[in-house]
Every structure is written in structure tokens, then in C-alpha cells.
Design goal:
Layout: H1 4-19, E1 25-29, H2 35-43, E2 48-51, H3 54-66, E3 72-75, H4 84-88, E4 93-97, H5 100-113, E5 117-123, H6 136-146, E6 152-159, H7 167-184, E7 190-192, H8 199-204, E8 209-212, H9 214-217
């Protein structure tokens, strides 16, 4: 019978081999998976982990750091104002920034601690407010406004394509907008896009950061 370590090692190796020509930052999304899986993956060489829930991210990151293991933690869930201090206490990067009021509070908290954080502006292709993100017309003014916050290092754009949009079409739109954004903001050229079902398409369209969960860890038993 295959052990959990052997299973994770094989899955991680398969993904790493597939993405190797692109050299992306691979973020293993560990939402709902146990700490033991994160420990194994960290031992196998993975050091970027993504979480959608701040309390879960805090607990796992503290446990891994207590073991003196190298790790970087990415928050990719919806940002709630009341959770910002907690998120900043463990996350090294935020992928879901889409509200300048949140940016202002993030900057205020970080200024108090003389620290900084990396961040992506979240793009929405369809304007669905329930899924978060800024539409194109709001994206560039938001990036301009973020320039005044010295504690926030804007890496680029993050996008999750609408579920009812054909992936190739969605990523073509993302790539086109990303190219224009990179030209306007040359210090923010990264693109966080692509998950377990579409990360190779995302890489073909310029993704620099991919967020992969079930392809490495297996299907979740619960959400």
C-alpha cells in the first residue's frame, strides 16, 4: 500500500516536471488538508503554501516555522477588514487585494510594525462581485493608488477565470490585459493564475505563479 509520503512525492514530482520549462512559482494550496501533509511537502522541498482561511493559515504557518522549516505563505481568500491584522501576522503575500480601503488599512498596520508585504491586485473578467476582483476600468487606477503605499509591494495581477468561460478564451483575455498592465507598471509584471485544472493553460498564457491543490494533495473530502 502506498504511503501518504510516497503519494505526495509522486504527485509533486509530476507537477514539477510538467511546469519545469516555465519555471513558475509553484504555490501548493493546502486549504482543508492536514498539517501533516504540509510537513511532508515541506520536507520534499515545497516551500510556498496557499491558504484561503486566515485562521488555518496562521496555525499551519506557525507550526512549520516552529520546526525551523523554510516556508512562504500566500493568502488567497476574500479579505475581510476585521481579519487584516491576523492575515498580516502570518502571510508573506496576498493574492486577492481588490479594495483600496483594505490597502489603506494594510499599510497602516504595516507602518506600525515597520514591515511590508507582497501583493497581487485581483482581476475580474466578468464583474461578478460575489467572486471578488476589479474590472479592467478600475484596475489601472487602483494600481496607481497603490504606489503611495510603500509597505505594499505590488507584484502584478491575480485572476481566476469565470467558471462558465472557456479556459483558452479566458486566459487569452487575461494575457492581453496582463501585457498592457506590465507595460504600464513595469515593476509589477507577475501573474498569479492557474489552478489544478488549468495551470498548464495559464502557463502558456504568461502565468508566473500557479496555485495547485488537488493535483498534488488529491481530492478534498470537504470544502
Amino acid at each position: 500500500m502506498t504511503s501518504r509520503r510516497e503519494e505526495l512525492a509522486a504527485n509533486l514530482a509530476e507537477v514539477l516536471e510538467a511546469v519545469d520549462p516555465y519555471s513558475p512559482t509553484l504555490i501548493v494550496v493546502t486549504k482543508t488538508y492536514p498539517l501533516s501533509d504540509v510537513e511532508i511537502l515541506n520536507q520534499l522541498g515545497a516551500n510556498n503554501f496557499g491558504e484561503n482561511r486566515s485562521d488555518e493559515g496562521f496555525a499551519k504557518s506557525q507550526a512549520i516555522k516552529a520546526q525551523s522549516k523554510s516556508s512562504n505563505w500566500h493568502y488567497q481568500g476574500e479579505i475581510q477588514s476585521k481579519k487584516i491584522k491576523e492575515i498580516l501576522s502570518w502571510a508573506d503575500c496576498i493574492h486577492s487585494l481588490d479594495d483600496l480601503r483594505h490597502a489603506e488599512k494594510i499599510d497602516r498596520v504595516l507602518q506600525e510594525n515597520s514591515s511590508s508585504i507582497k501583493a497581487f491586485l485581483q482581476l475580474s473578467l466578468d464583474g461578478d462581485s460575489s467572486r471578488g476582483g476589479l474590472i479592467e476600468s478600475d484596475l489601472f487606477p487602483a494600481a496607481e493608488a497603490l504606489n503611495k503605499y510603500r509597505s505594499i509591494d505590488l507584484l502584478g495581477l491575480m485572476c481566476v477565470p469565470p467558471v462558465d468561460m472557456e479556459p483558452a478564451l479566458a486566459y487569452a483575455q487575461i494575457a492581453s490585459l496582463h501585457q498592457r498592465f506590465s507595460a504600464e507598471f513595469p515593476d509589477s509584471k507577475s501573474l498569479s493564475a492557474g489552478m489544478s485544472g488549468d495551470y498548464m493553460i495559464a502557463l502558456d498564457h504568461g502565468a508566473t505563479h500557479i496555485r495547485v491543490g488537488s493535483k498534488i494533495l488529491g481530492e478534498r473530502d470537504y470544502d
